[in-house]
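User: quick one, fold this
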Amino acid sequence: MAHVITDSNFKELVLSSDKPVLVDFWAVWCGPCRMIAPIVEELAKEYDGKAVIGKLDVDNNPNTAMEYGIRSIPTLLVFKGGEVVDKIVGAVSKSAILAKLEPHMA
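Assistant:
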């Protein structure tokens, strides 16, 4: 299952991770977010132990969303070493997400 990322655990789960991290910025009312939610859950299972896959609800965690300039959702950010290394905006296919995540798995 994807990690639940919040304003309070963001530093611990994302910025301090020694693995690549994919964060899905989403909201309950967002249709495209619901479309990619099953893909994010699949990736969480498939990459368990190899990468951190998490979801951050922008309505409940506005500080982190604001800090990273999230203006439209879904937005997926890929972090490595505490830095944003890639970004996806909008509902995309699993292969499109993997194309952004895979290069940072080494």
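User: anything notable?
Assistant: Strands lie at 3-5, 21-26, 52-57, 75-80, 83-89.
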